[in-house]
Amino acid sequence: MKLRVTTGYEDYPLYQEIKKHLQYSTQEVCHVPCTSLKFSNENIKIKIEDCVRGDDIFVIQPCYPNFNERIMELFILIDALKYASAKRISVVLPYYPYVRSDKKDESRISITARLMADLIQAAGADRVIVMNLHSAQIQGFFRIPMDHLLPGRTIAKYLSDGRIPDNTVFVAPDTGSAKMVGYFSEKLNKPFVIIEKRRVDDSENPQIVNVIGEVKGHHCIILDDEIASGGTVIKAADKLVELGALGVDVCAVHGVFTEKSKVLFDSNDNIQKVYVTNSIFRPDIEYPSYTEVISVAEMLSQAILCTHKDNSITTVCDRYQI
Q: What's the CATH code, domain 152-294?
């Protein structure tokens, strides 16, 4: 089978990076061109512009901009590839849609993360590759092979390249993150502390009830899986500075960044740096001015190559998520 990659949104910078890595590794052009058309009634039409019969196709699909449109685009693209006789279709989702809707914690609501798994499979996907799920249990929603990539090694390497002061402590934003932050603590030989918080509703306004560990006189790096508005990490940063921290950085895999996030971050003096990966592309949103982006293109391209060759991807990423 010939390795090919495609996307419903070619302006996605991470897709272009992955494609370059793959072209360098395979010494061949592997892009599948497709044309996307949105009609006046908002229906979407996708046409595959090249023969894919018998090919091993990897669909690398972003969730932004226009979140729900990107999801529908994904389903139509999978279906088009299926009927174009692609041999195998693997969906690569650097950010899994509706990832936080992973449980039924209210009456009469949808477990939408499970619904996404059902729809991806129904559209015709043979395999799914995702990165850093909010809850690892989402893997159990799939009845097809599914690989969960964790970019801990990539992020740790980036931070260790002269970006961590000697007096750094890593901070788990909640007790559920303790194991993950402990991994970074061990990997980079730094202590860590845990924030104990309570969340009573769906708002990004949890109550911090305790900080377990010493932060006075230290530089803190809060590690989280996702930044949306930033309200949670800003509240945590304020609490750490109140307890004597000299400064605070924030590191997250997915930089969702809602419309109000830049205002919240830029109006806060306690956060000095924000690190996120390039899993999400938000051309419609201006990031905080002190944001640094960590590329995960090499990790994802290695996972794609391993999958194509039917090799293990265990060595591609680490076992603890951030």
A: 3.40.50.2020
